[in-house]
Amino acid sequence: MIQFALKRLGIAVLVALTVSMLSFSMIYLSGDPAVALAGEGASQEDIENVRRVYGFERPLIVQYGDWLIRALQGNLGHSNYLKADVASVIFERLPTTMLLGACALAFALILAIPLGVVAAIRANSMIDRVALTIAVIGQAMPSFWLALTLILWFGINWRMLPITGTASWLNFIMPSIALGYYVTPAVMRLTRAGMLEVLSSDYIRTARAKGLRPMTVLFKHALRNAIIPVVSLSAVQFGFMLGGSIVIETIFAINGLGFLAWESIQRADLPMMQAIVLVFSVFYILLTFLADLLNGFLDPRIRVA
Amino acid sequence: MSDKILEVQDLTIDIPTPSGTLHAVQKVSIHVDRGETLCIVGESGCGKSLTSLAIMDLLPRKATRTATRLEIAGESVFDIGERRMSDIRGNRMSMIFQEPMTSLNPAYTIGDQLSEALRRHKKVSRGEARDRAVFLLEKVGITAAASRLGQYPHQLSGGLRQRVMIAMALMCGPDLIIADEPTTALDVTIQAQILHLLAELQREFNMGLILITHDLGVVARIADRVAVMYAGQIVETGTAEQIFKAPAHPYTRGLLACIPIPGQTERGAHLGAIPGIVPSLVGRMPGCHFASRCPEVRDSCNSAPIPQFQGAEPGRSVRCLLADEAAVRQPAQEGAA
């Protein structure tokens, strides 16, 4: 198990390095960064000054190495727009986004896994069809539209929930649903497919032949095996949700990383965008790594690989 | 107290299909005594596996079963509900399946899967369940039993897994074990070991054993009594000796002709084969199920259902008009043979 974990960790680090290179190269995405930083109407001399101050005249590899070392030390640069340290701004916003992501994923899993299990046990029944309908609607409905609909009904017409901000846990209900609902269909269908396959397997027949209670057969023997692909999928979906949080946080005016990303894009705040991409990516890699570990724990056969 | 561990009467299994009802098992009656091995023999699709699953009440959901009697040690277990049935499964009767490679849950250790069978039915501590698991793993010939408890199924070979399955079936000390082709998926050398083991354990624990197989060599080695199944029906029953020495049904004779016997079958001689294929069991067949392939078929075979004729000795029966005629017409000759 330890060997397996180390192997996975090694892969995760390599992926993170690759991502950091991409993230670094973002500075050069819109042409000469010195020109961009110097602003409109800057003289050639000003541009050269900026180039020297920021070290853009050095070879790329040196710039990257320098940037990487500073990033590892927690120094992600300086935002010219906010006149503040990028890292401190990001870490101020990060908890809100993580909380939103966790709530959304929890909502998605709590809805999707039981529905998937029931749909598999009662395959082709009324419940299965209702679950399928929910899945199709979820897949087809854009999350921004769901968010606006929720705001309209629960926020404005019925005045049940606050529509903006992060003042209390009530503020998180609608954003979590809007963000998590998009993830539900894939998780539900995968749970259903996995359960259907596992329930017809020989070892489930063995479990029943042992006289185990139906609930033990279902949860201990079937779900444990059916859930393994769902774990991997959830990690991937969480990545999508980080992207989705840009839209959802903007709609609900939640001061998280997604909102910050949107603001930074509008302000052309390059160091900030660069850092957000990096943080999102590292977080995503971390989740995939944790999902691998969890799968290794769930399925002893994976540990060998 | 009756010595009958299992008594099944008129077990019938129907499976609905798009083209009509499949009469997979038709009025099968069997019984097993304590300490006795009953072999159910027949080719693929004759309904022998479904019969065993029906006894355990583990049939696929769409299949329906009926029976006039289904008793374990004199107690009826027909349609007693899933709750009461699950108290009996794995406890008073257990089952060993054909596929050892896939019959164990890949996510749990051997020890966990063994203990859970015992702890479901008996009030025992974790330690006691573990001790019993070690005891039985040693009984089924697994070395270093204690260290195996922490292993996962994928770490064991097919033969070892089948031994684990046997140990698991024995955890609660059942009255009856049903083994559905337990050696089919194993290497030939392992097959003999597993069969030997089953026979030995059955004697030691004085259990009833139903062994389902299509391998007559297996039957010859361990059966006390034999029931030959063909196309959903039992066509012949008798002791192993009766079946092998004096097969009465043309199908049984056909089966026996397929096996070469050292010293008797001449080198280069053609082995027997039964021509034709098993009839479809969708819809009703008017007469004998074997008529289309029978070398001795006559007109009367196809006109009416063939009853199970009882032989002179108890437990001997044949579903064949010819056997009936022979028995009635030539009693003296039969006795002399």
Structure commentary:
The complex is a heterodimer of chains A (305) and B (337). Chain A is mainly alpha-helical and 305 residues long. Chain A has two domains: 2-86, no CATH class; 88-303, Orthogonal Bundle (MetI-like fold), CATH 1.10.3720.10. In chain A, 77% of the residues lie in helices and 1% in strands. Chain A has a two-stranded antiparallel sheet with strand order 1-2. The longest helix of chain A is centred in the middle third of the chain and has 36 residues, at 86-121. Chain A starts with a helix and ends with a helix. Chain B has 337 residues and is α/β, with parallel strands linked by helices. Helices cover 34% and strands 22% of the residues of chain B. Chain B contains twelve helices and 13 strands. Chain B has helices spanning 48-56, 82-88, 110-121, 126-139, 145-148, 158-170, 188-205, 216-222, 240-245, 250-257, 321-329, 331-336; strands at 4-17, 20-33, 37-41, 64-66, 69-72, 75-76, 93-96, 176-180, 208-213, 225-230, 233-239, 309-310, 317-318. In chain B, strand 8 (176-180), helix 7 and strand 9 form a beta-alpha-beta unit. In chain B, helix 3 crosses helix 4 (126-139) and helix 4 packs across helix 6 (158-170). The two termini of chain B are 37 Å apart. Classes of the chains: A mainly alpha (305), B alpha/beta (337). Chains A and B meet through helix 10, helix 11 and helix 15 of A and helix 2 and helix 3 of B.
- Tell me what the CATH architecture of the largest domain in chain A is: Orthogonal Bundle
Largest sheet of chain A: 2 strands, antiparallel
Strand residue percentage of chain A: under 5%
Radius of gyration of chain A: 24 Å
List keywords for this structure.
heterodimer; A: 305 residues; mainly alpha; MetI-like fold; two-stranded antiparallel ribbon; 1% strand; B: 337 residues; alpha/beta; 8-stranded mixed beta sheet; 12 helices; 22% strand; globular
